[in-house]
Amino acid sequence: MYIRRTHTRNSATGESYHTHRLVQSKRVGSQVRQETLLNLGRHFAIDQEQWPTLCARIEEVLSGQNSLCPVECSDGIEREAQRIVARLLARNTETLPSDEKDAKPQGDIQSVDISTLELSRPRSIGVEHLGIWAMEKVRFVELLNKLGFTGPQQSAAVGLVIGRMAAPGSEQSTHRWLRDQSGLGELLDADFEAMSAMQLYRVSDLLVRNREEIEKNMFGMIKNLFSLSCTVTLYDLTNTYFEGELSKNAKAQRGHSKEKRSDCPLLTLGLVLDENGFVRRSEVFAGNAAESKTLEQMLNNLGAPEGSLVVMDRGIATEANLSWLRDRKYRYLVVSREHRRQFDMEHATCIETASKQRVHIQKVASPDGQELRLYCHSERRAMKEDGIMRRFSKHFEAELQKLHDGLARPRTTKTITKLWERIGRLKEKCHGVGQHYQINIVPDIDGKNATAIQWEQKPMDGSLLTHPGVYCLRTNETGWDEERLWRTYITLTDLESVFRSLKSELGLRPVFHHKEERSDGHLFITVLAYQFVQIIRRHLHDKGINERWSSLREILSGQRRITATFRRSDGRTLHVRKATNAESGQLRIYQAVGLNPSPGGVKKMIV
Questions:
Q1: Is-contact 268 239, C-beta < 8 A?
Q2: For the chain, what is the domain count?
Q3: What are the backbone dihedrals phi and psi of residue 448, each rounded to the nearest 5 degrees, phi first?
Q4: 57-70: pLDDT as tens digits
Q5: Checking DSSP bridges between strand 603-606 and strand 560-568, what pairing results, if any?
Q6: Is 197 within the bounds of a domain?
Q7: Are 409 and 503 in the same domain?
Q8: Residue 362 bridge partners (DSSP)
């Protein structure tokens, strides 16, 4: 066995170049012929003086002599030898003599020495198997092909997305996962071990450049797959933070971080989803982008039919945005920005949630009849907010008591002006609870120092303290009843779960890239991963499987593909590569979507 460098020419372009082949000499009758075992490509990275060592190591692995690795065999040679052996096995070449082929009994019974058994190259396969299935449902690879992605670029794109589903992290960590831990390359017939991290980065750039077309085509396929209607559109934003300084990314700006990482530059991700949680459009904004100013950009050219209902949170529901929606014949259902709370239980309708909690809804029409306001009272929310206000009030009163007690001790603040300053700072820290207290400082005879601090709680009407659990929804959809409007609004909470999934389950945060396009690519890969996760979960939900993606991923990650190596009775070596048997949880998932529980089939080679 040896490596041969061959000069060749591209018949299509006329380009002349050198390629490398792994070759072995084989005697056929009285002649010796050279047989090409594997094309190693034009960019073969091993230096020529190391080729004999590499070939010797390949022969040792193939013959089952893994323990005899030469001392001078470097890590790079060992990794390349293992990669080449894996590719040879993946080709499923079976080198049996002609008489043995004819006599091979049904069932492929082999005589082997059990004591020589070796198990090697364990690679994860479960999430990869399910991810490819989800991509086939929407013809993702066909779409990439139409967009001009080459074969290797298509494999890299699939690897980036499934890597984000299976092992969330940066593109660099995805490259290591594809190279060292995953069996995805076997399912795609792709050699990720020979693929550089830069190739993944460049494919990430390509995905971003084709984002609009990819999202449009994918949602169209998803819409047909699940027979979805597009009558409800959800819109919201979240942000993620960077590690490091981002001088080359104009979008990386400091702002209000929802993860409390305002010490870092931020990026803002806007998502438009349908009521079933599938992404219709995504956009990356600057980290300091005002939520209210992004709506028009996101909904323009979306193709939502006239009269579609747009559901938004209060941060986006400005009067200007609502006016813009009305002008374009959109309906809207938003959380009202009004601060004063009100509720009349006598005129409210009671509904029961899926978790058996009660919500009371009071419907109030505007004077012109063009809008409705739904004043909602949630018993669970009331208990939570009441507990929060009691805690804040207790802390506020305890701090006032400390100030009062200090008046009787030496070396404490007693000056009235200083005490009012401290009370003012205390009000700032107590989340608005100070407005519900009437505070009086009793002066001494001179009027400069205080002798006592007195307070009394006087709740302000229409506030969180007097109306816990109350919130207001605003809509121009006047034909729906209270329950339908409320249950439609609740779909907005599903969007919050989408953001939680993107961040905690699919590696949205943090971002390590310095270039704008690379940062956008990181976020878009996560959005694509979410789309395929949602396809999987929607199918599994119909079969009664409702686990979170993190739980499903953990179940599937236990299945591996492994190579078993035996010494045969005739002295040759048998290599068999197959997946471990699917356990009960894995089998339940595979059966729910109609997948073969043995991904990749069985590969065999006799040397």
A1: yes
A2: 5
A3: -95, -40
A4: 888 887 776 554 44
A5: unpaired
A6: yes
A7: no
A8: 348, 375
Mark which of 32, 67, 91 sits at the end of a domain: 91
Residue 365 lies in a domain: no
Q: Give whole-number Cα distances, 269 to 183, 239, 313, in Å.
A: 32, 6, 15
Tokens describing residue 347: 């005129």
Please, are residues 242 and 265 in contact by the beta-carbon 8 Å criterion? Answer: yes
pLDDT digits (tens, 9 = 90+) for 359-398: 999 999 999 889 999 999 999 999 999 999 999 999 999 9
Give me the DSSP letters along 155-173.
HHHHHHHHHHHHS-S-HHH
Please give the structure tokens belonging to residue 63.
Answer: 């013959």
Which residue, among 282, 285, 239, has the nearest Cα to 262 in the 3D structure?
239
Residues 418 and 523 occupy one common structural domain: no
Same domain, 499 and 517: yes
In a domain, 116, yes or no: no
The H or E element spanning position 393 is: helix 379-406
Q: Tell whether the torsion through CA atoms of 588, 590, 591 and 596 is positive or negative.
A: negative
Query: Is 194 in the same domain as 228?
Result: no
Of the candidates 476, 429, 432, 471, which has an alpha carbon nearest to the alpha carbon of residue 340?
Answer: 471
Domain that holds residue 440: 382-457
CA 326 – CA 330 distance, rounded (Å): 6
What pTM did the predictor assign?
A: 0.76
Mean pLDDT, range 183-196, rounded to an integer: 92
- pLDDT 10s digits, 266-283: 888 888 888 888 888 888
Q: Evaluate whether residue 524 is within a structural domain.
A: yes
